[in-house]
Amino acid sequence: MPANRSLLVLPGDGIGPEVMGEVRRVIDWMDRRRAVTFDVGEGLVGGAAIDAEGAPLADATMDRAMNADAVLLGAVGGPKWDSLPFAQKPERGLLRLRKEMQLYANLRPAICFEALVDASTLKPEVVSGLDILIVRELTGGVYFGEPRGIETLPDGTRRGVNTQVYTSPEIRRVAAVAFELARKRGNKVCSSEKANVMESGVLWREEVAKLHEESYSDVELTHMYADNCAMQLVRWPKQFDVIVTDNLFGDMLSDEAAMLTGSLGMLPSASLGDIDETGRRKALYEPVHGSAPDIAGEGKANPIATLLSFAMALRYSFDLAEDADLIESAVTKVLGSGIRTADIAAPGATTVSTEAMGEALIRELDEQAA
Ligand code: NAD
Fold this sequence. Notes:
The chain has 12 helices and 12 strands. The protein has helices at about 15-35, 45-55, 60-65, 90-100, 125, 170-185, 200-215, 225-235, 245-260, 305-315, 320-335, 355-370; strands at about 5-10, 40, 70-75, 105-110, 130-135, 150, 160, 190-195, 220-225, 240-245, 270-275, 280-285. Helix 1 packs across helix 10, helix 6 (about 170-185) packs across helix 7 and helix 10 (about 305-315) runs antiparallel to helix 11. Nicotinamide-adenine-dinucleotide binds next to helix 4.
């Protein structure tokens, strides 16, 4: 098969290169064993790019990201660059990617691996078998709305302002992503806002309902106030399949849902943009965790979040669901056999290194593909 699937890998800082190394091994494995070939390019982002290229994301790297079928990022940041001015920090590299690729839909799955049921703070029966997906609007809402700022009033009091603002196309495009994804999963969407107290919430609810009626009436749609949604996520999360919500509520609900399942080292994410004229959807895949400077270089990092992010790329950018299933099932098997990096091990249990976890995953993939 020709190498026609282009993937730009940006390992970044801290544990980024370590965890990405294990993903590169899986990519090589796929090349050898599955005849699935990728045209993989690698570039610098974050602190590594500041040191070598003078900016957290060089223009040339940005161009490569715009032209790749998918971008896979490790993590950015670290104490070395903490004192830089805000506009030059490593995180600006990531923000530039999100902004210029116009990634408006952030996908955060919360899947509970059976072997890690006890790692959750919730009861096993509440989280066992959990598989939900939060779709968060990422480029609009109160984090970007104008007017914004802090002003001093004539009487000396200070006033801080942010504006929650959404237009109907912004709501419809992210809702469409949620409906499309639901069709490939449990066929249910719960749309979450605060239509009881916010006009932008009323518009959100109306536009989602309208789009549903026009194009997605085969998908089951419910609406839920965001505060209730937060409560229901800890009460009985298995009632949900796909949740679609705005930037602010999504920020909180996706972190809450993530923690239902245990460790940061296990959590993947995807950010999707529009489909262009060639039929390709801009997409960035990355683990939810950061660069973990406290363990960087020690071989302790869990590579699974980044590997599961790559599996999301296979599913959503490359239409290789079977290969994504294979990776996810290898993760399940390896965890089931008790192999653990330190972040997901019970106190006192034996742990393995980043590399040994990668080796165990390759062994399991070998077995599954045999
Ligand atoms: P972090 O996610 O890097 O680390 C939080 C804790 O989780 C640490 O104790 C770390 O050791 C542990 N951890 C994280 N990922 C792990 C993994 N794969 N395996 C094992 N343990 C893991 O968050 P932080 O400490 O708040 O931030 C550190 C740096 O990362 C900062 O510079 C921050 O700005 C940056 N950051 C970057 C991103 C990103 O690149 N998307 C996200 C969050 C934070």
